[in-house]
Design a protein that fits this description.
- The chain is α+β, with helices and mostly antiparallel strands.
- The protein has two domains: 6-180, no CATH class; 189-309, Roll (Nuclear Transport Factor 2, Chain: A).
- Helix content is 54%, strand content 15%.
- It has helices spanning 6-14, 18-27, 29-40, 44-60, 70-87, 108-113, 116-126, 131-142, 148-155, 159-180, 189-208, 212-215, 235-247, 306-309, and strands at residues 218-225, 231-233, 251-260, 263-271, 283-291, 294-302.
- It has a six-stranded mixed sheet with strand order 2-1-6-5-4-3, with helices on both faces.
């Protein structure tokens, strides 16, 4: 039996077939590497460019309009990656433009990850990374807080360390995705359920103002970092800070939830009161470091308000 053509693999990948996407990427690996070497020379930069192209394909396979054009599309993606490296050596040109996520514009990666088979494949690959590398990857490739600076603030590390972690994680993740593509993966439903319970607890607290809604999702001695970048301790203090914002008329609209083993990333669109349109930033990315069912530490990154930036 002949192997399926590119169009067949693309259509299967769109339906969530991880093995088809893995086969598609592996089929064109040699060509992509040759092109990368031609543009960047022999060495780690060329390999990194191919890995980045693979990760972009994972994110954006749903954007490929002509399934039969996969080869040309992958080459175009790789070309953009290589040109970005040539313009700015050391850059990792895989993040979306830094802007507040919007509920009306679901990210292609979110659509892909929510397909059962593909989702389990991605999480199985992420599980092979250490927590520091996994956090850097989740923020860079899956969240709105994708700039080096935002990741550095969330992780409490220099920008140079962010680059180092991403360089290490990129190679490991791309290889793991290909190695695991044809395997069966454990269901991550319990992790997703815990993450959904977290989002539900936050929404219940906003509606009722009852801290009891948070006690099942957060540790009593929660450590948290909000807009002022000061780390504080205690669930009650955290609840009081949230309550003050809600009493001022702020409204929170969760728009994306990313469970990743002992991490969860919650992205929330914030709505200021009409009479005070600059009261709060337009969005916040919350990173929850979890132990079992409870968040033990929370770090928040706030998007810059466009009006204030201007």
């Amino acid at each position: 039996m002949s192997e399926p053509d590119d169009a067949t693999l693309v259509r299967a990948a769109r339906r969530g077939d991880a093995a088809s996407l893995g086969m598609l990427l592996e089929r064109h690996r040699a060509l992509l590497h040759a092109v990368a070497v031609g543009m960047l020379g022999h060495g780690p930069q060329a390999e990194d460019a191919v890995h980045d192209a693979f990760l972009i394909a994972l994110r954006r396979i749903g954007e490929l309009r002509e399934a039969a054009a996969a080869r040309a599309w992958l080459l175009a993606v790789l070309g953009n990656v290589c040109r970005a490296q040539l313009r700015r050596p050391g850059a990792t040109p895989v993040a979306d433009p830094v802007e507040p996520p919007r509920a009306a514009d679901p990210a292609p990666v979110e659509e892909a990850v929510e397909r059962t088979v593909l989702r389990e494949w991605v999480w199985a690959a992420l599980a092979q990374l250490s927590e520091p590398l996994r956090l850097a990857v989740v923020l860079r490739y899956f969240s709105g807080a994708s700039s080096y600076e935002a990741i550095a603030r969330i992780c409490g590390i220099p920008v140079g360390t962010v680059r180092s972690r991403l360089n290490a994680a990129r190679t490991q993740l791309a290889e793991a995705l290909l190695e695991l593509a044809a395997e069966r993966h454990d269901d991550s439903a319990p992790e997703r359920q815990r993450a959904l319970e977290l989002a539900a607890a936050m929404a219940a607290f906003e509606r009722r103002g009852d801290v009891a809604a948070l006690r099942q999702a957060f540790a009593p001695d929660l450590r948290f970092v909000l807009a002022d970048r000061v780390e504080r301790r205690g669930l009650d203090r955290f609840a009081a800070r949230l309550a003050a914002d809600f009493e001022d008329g702020v409204r929170a609209h969760p728009i994306r939830l990313i469970p990743a083993l002992d991490l969860a990333v919650l992205e929330v669109r914030l709505e200021s009161p009409p009479e005070r349109p600059l009261h709060c930033p337009p969005a916040v990315t919350q990173v929850h470091f979890r132990e079992g069912h409870a968040t033990r530490r929370l770090v928040s990154h706030y998007a810059e308000h466009p009006a204030r930036a201007a």
